[in-house]
Task: structure prediction
Amino acid sequence: MRFNWIACDSHCRGWVSAIGIITADTPKAFDDFASAHHVDGATVVLDSSGGSVNDAIALGRRWRELGLRTTVGTSVVIKTAAGNRAAVLPDAYCESMCVFILLSGKARYIPDGAHVRVHQIWMGDRAEDPKAASYNAQDLMIVERDIGRLAKYTFDMGGAGDLLSLALSVPPWEDLHELSPAELRSTNLVTTDAVAEVLPVNAISGAAPMAGLVTKPVQDRFPGSVADTAAVMTVSKPTKTAEAIPTGGIAAAAPAHQQ
Result:
């Protein structure tokens, strides 16, 4: 996951753009980023297919400590009559473990047009053909342990049991489940309908971004390797993507649209 500070104009504060897969390096990468910017109470704009369960939990707890706000979107530069300005477009994805770091926001806003999708955690090294793979008692222990960690984190962040129920009901060989507006509320993922509680109103735009000025880098949703014993939220179908996981940990099986 890559972090960038998006500067706003003189009438509003900037925000953090967080794009890509959550790996074992992500919590430290964020701490390094935060040490160079005043992020306390800032908003994080997410576009991610998820990643490591345990590292996402660590990242989410850090964000809650800092009182960060969260939303889903793509940070761009918009050309206006008054000049260029930074803005957030809603057409973005927050999938798998991204949904759980979205949950860590002190205030959470999900715009119309954003896609929030969930599915089960799974063993990352067996995501290519999960039905044909073999599993042993150690594998089951890892999965159940990390489900327990994820459940505790969910409730600590103020999430509802419905979120876990929806995610854990979708196996990796099925398409991810996109949460409806009603489900976003029943799971407590949405805390406000007021954009200004998360981002200044003039940072939200439906205008077309300037060609070549989109700040979002292309993200590789298919990491090159997965820890042999780790469980992850991952799938191999074209509609999902494997997420990276630390050795000995579980990663959320990640559904993936391809961008």
About this structure: Residues 209-250, 253-259 have pLDDT under 50 and may be disordered. The first strand starts at residue 2 and ends at 6.
